[in-house]
């Protein structure tokens, strides 16, 4: 079987993920009504827009060919319902889904309740896991995800309804792979190959690999942390002599707010901004965030501007006194980075502007969970759950 490195990824999008892609088809503001008919896109515009979703693509020529020949490709994403939703999962996902659906894709979001149980989330309590799944869907609706071409599918329901199709596929994938190859996929569960894995967690990667074919996905649109199992699916295609491999479009992993946190963690409330955080909470978290002057690499505040604020608004607005440079509106990340590295843009300028922008994005979500009794009770229930690793 081929190793993961055999598929050479293209890691640099042809257009920047934060601003240039939206220019191809106009603003990507999530305020637009789903019923608004966007202008028809050329195949190249579709490709640029879809490609901008991913930090890495395996393979770009396959993606270009797919979008040119298939008007309604199927994109697959999945998530374990395992706790409160942070902005990486909430806002970034809404931005990505809205780009994909504007390009004509149908997005199947796999609510992996059985997988969360296999991974011992919520202590394996399926009732709690289902409650969290419904809470996450509620947030995506409130934040502005365009649901016209989105299907939310519960893994337990779908697998049970087509068990005779699903389980032989899982078994065949398991049969064709040795144990070390499957253990190497443990990253997809937030584990490492050094962890003591349960038998259920060994079975998990075989099932996730099967999901891709079970859902008839053309594009696997998950995070970089899910790369190994997506590559496993392409290797499986080689084994069974299948020509049309799923295209891997892996999005960037938004870091935590603290120094050195490569991934935002919902289990650390001080490093994550939750989708229903109050304005004061967001302000405090951003104020305490790691943001060294004139340093771009590893700076979470700048990453949030690049991957959340600029794609959402198209601009990043800084308000400051004239003696500190006056107000300024940034429309590209390159312009902002140049000012930040030179020292003309200070963390004291960035943080209040970033907090203001994030609060503006999150306000509809807060309003929904405050004004809708069902949503309010759901949030109260989820907050009471203890997050398990």
TrEMBL record:
Keyword Protein biosynthesis: yes
Organism superkingdom: Eukaryota
A GO biological-process term: tyrosyl-tRNA aminoacylation
Listed EC numbers: 6.1.1.1
Keywords: Aminoacyl-tRNA synthetase, ATP-binding, Cytoplasm, Ligase, Nucleotide-binding, Protein biosynthesis
A cellular component term, taken from the record's GO annotations: cytosol
GO molecular function term, any single one: ATP binding
Alphabetized InterPro entries for the sequence: aa-tRNA-synth_Ic (IPR002305), Rossmann-like_a/b/a_fold (IPR014729), Tyr-tRNA-ligase_arc/euk-type (IPR023617), Tyr-tRNA_synthase (IPR050489)
Enzymatic reactions: tRNA(Tyr) + L-tyrosine + ATP = L-tyrosyl-tRNA(Tyr) + AMP + diphosphate + H(+)
Record region (Disordered): 1-42
Name of the top EC class for this enzyme: ligase
Function, as annotated: Catalyzes the attachment of tyrosine to tRNA(Tyr) in a two-step reaction: tyrosine is first activated by ATP to form Tyr-AMP and then transferred to the acceptor end of tRNA(Tyr).
Family classification: Belongs to the class-I aminoacyl-tRNA synthetase family.
Protein location: Cytoplasm, Cytosol
Record's protein name: tyrosine--tRNA ligase
Signal peptide annotation: none
């Amino acid at each position: 079987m081929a190793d993961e490195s055999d598929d050479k990824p293209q890691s640099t999008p042809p257009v920047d993920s934060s601003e240039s892609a939206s220019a191809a088809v106009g603003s990507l503001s999530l305020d637009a009504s789903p019923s608004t008919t966007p202008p028809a896109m050329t195949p190249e515009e579709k490709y640029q827009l879809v490609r901008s979703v991913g930090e890495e693509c395996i393979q770009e020529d396959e993606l270009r060919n797919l979008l040119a020949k298939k008007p309604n490709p199927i994109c697959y994403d999945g998530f374990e319902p395992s706790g409160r939703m942070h902005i990486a999962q909430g806002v970034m996902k809404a931005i990505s889904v809205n780009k994909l659906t504007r390009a004509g894709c149908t997005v199947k979001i796999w609510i992996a309740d059985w997988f969360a149980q296999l991974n011992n989330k919520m202590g394996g309590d399926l009732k709690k896991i289902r409650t969290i799944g419904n809470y996450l869907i509620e947030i995506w609706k409130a934040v502005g995800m365009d649901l016209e071409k989105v299907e939310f599918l519960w893994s337990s329901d779908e697998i049970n309804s087509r068990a005779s199709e699903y389980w032989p596929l899982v078994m065949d994938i398991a049969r064709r792979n040795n144990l070390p190859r499957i253990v190497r996929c443990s990253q997809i569960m937030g584990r490492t190959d050094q962890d003591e894995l349960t038998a259920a967690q060994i079975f998990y990667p075989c099932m996730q690999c099967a999901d891709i074919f079970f859902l008839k996905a053309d594009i696997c649109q998950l995070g970089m942390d899910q790369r190994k199992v997506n590559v496993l699916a392409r290797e499986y295609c080689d084994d069974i002599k299948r020509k049309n491999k799923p295209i891997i479009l892996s999005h960037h992993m938004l870091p935590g707010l603290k120094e050195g946190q490569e991934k935002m963690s919902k289990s650390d409330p001080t490093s994550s901004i939750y989708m229903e955080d109050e304005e004061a909470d967001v302000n405090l978290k951003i104020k305490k965030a790691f943001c060294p002057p004139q340093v771009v690499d590893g700076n979470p505040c700048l990453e949030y501007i690049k991957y959340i604020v600029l794609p959402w608004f198209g601009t990043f607005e800084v308000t400051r006194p004239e003696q500190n440079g006056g107000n300024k509106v940034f429309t590209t990340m390159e312009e902002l980075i140049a000012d930040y590295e030179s020292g003309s843009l200070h963390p004291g300028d960035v943080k209040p502007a970033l907090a203001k922008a994030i609060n503006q994005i999150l306000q509809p979500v807060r309003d929904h969970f405050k004004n809708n009794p069902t949503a309010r009770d759901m949030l109260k229930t989820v907050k009471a759950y203890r997050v398990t690793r």
